[in-house]
Amino acid sequence: TQLLEQSPQFLSIQEGENLTVYCNSSSVFSSLQWYRQEPGEGPVLLVTVVTGGEVKKLKRLTFQFGDARKDSSLHITAAQPGDTGLYLCAGAGTSGTYKYIFGTGTRLKVLA
Amino acid sequence: EPEVTQTPSHQVTQMGQEVILRCVPISNHLYFYWYRQILGQKVEFLVSFYNNEISEKSEIFDDQFSVERPDGSNFTLKIRSTKLEDSAMYFCASRDRGSYTFGSGTRLTVV
Prior knowledge:
- The complex is a heterodimer of chains A (about 110) and B (about 110).
- Chain A has about 110 residues and is mainly beta.
- Chain A has no helices and eleven strands.
- Chain B is built from no helices and eleven strands.
């Protein structure tokens, strides 16, 4: 069974601080996605990484896929209150159907 | 921005009743999925659907669940005899190449 563990589970920081969220597994994924989910809403896709070692940037967010495609990180620079939310990583297995296994989530709160 | 639309947004049903959750995927997408999220827990894969048949299903997707694409636009999840533990948010998703889009979900409450 493929599992994705995220850390930390909860994070409360001040506006302007930097933070990194980690997503780890013992399994290899063909691709990995990061989502943000608001209460009562569906997950919204932020990025998809496919190649081991790949780095993608989305404004103040930097996503990295581990070289072995087993882990990923999300780094936020100069966090803002608008970044508050639940961040989920999700990995696609190698079965070809692109079902995604979701991580446990990191709930981020950025204080003004 | 194309959207995946789910209806209803909230459904309350009595234990043992049948429910049908509806989804309209993005029109040119070919792969469809249902996921669920029990309150406070992580999002779990239920089933994937392609070319009018199930391509993969999880252990959760037992005989009480079924999916259908009755016409060219709708994708439905039927739960035949609901149990209390079926209470959750159910998300539909559709995919084309790297684009994976989730709907806003249906909150199912079984009482």
